[in-house]
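User: Just a sanity check before I run the rest of the batch. Below are the structure tokens for the first item. I only need the designed sequence back.
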């Protein structure tokens, strides 16, 4: 080295290397943070995932509420309907099922095969999506009952 006395404020080569390494590390972290902020695609994916999760949670909550309200409405209808009327409704339902079965057989005999295939595909899709269809039907029933009750008041 040199014969000059060392000044306290002058860093040693080891200290300089350490400062350089620390500065590089900070710079690397800063670059990563900036790159993360600039990555719009990744941010959009994260936001989409968050929105999907929120929507799924809300849908689950609403579905539960609809099921509960539909159950309450069905129980209310059962409680308020006189027994003779329930009996007649049951008989009418049996008669409708019987008539429908006969009409279905007649339609199946006279319907062309391509139409039958399409109908089978539609029935399979309905069976595969039974829960959403039932929930939608229950929601419509509840809506109609509420609308009907409000109209009477």
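Assistant: Here's the designed sequence for the first item:
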């Amino acid at each position: 080295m040199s014969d000059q006395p060392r000044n306290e404020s002058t860093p040693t080569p080891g200290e300089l290397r350490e400062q350089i390494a620390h500065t590089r590390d900070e710079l690397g972290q800063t670059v990563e943070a900036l790159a993360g902020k600039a990555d719009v695609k990744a941010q959009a994916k994260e936001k989409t995932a968050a929105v999907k999760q929120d929507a799924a949670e809300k849908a689950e909550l609403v579905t539960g509420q609809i099921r509960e309200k539909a159950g309450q409405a069905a129980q209310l209808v059962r409680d308020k309907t006189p027994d003779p009327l329930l009996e007649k409704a049951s008989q009418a339902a049996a008669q409708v099922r019987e008539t429908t079965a006969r009409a279905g057989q007649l339609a199946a005999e006279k319907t062309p095969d391509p139409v039958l295939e399409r109908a089978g595909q539609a029935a399979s899709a309905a069976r595969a999506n039974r829960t959403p269809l039932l929930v939608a039907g229950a929601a419509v029933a509840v809506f109609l009952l509420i609308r009907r009750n409000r109209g009477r008041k």
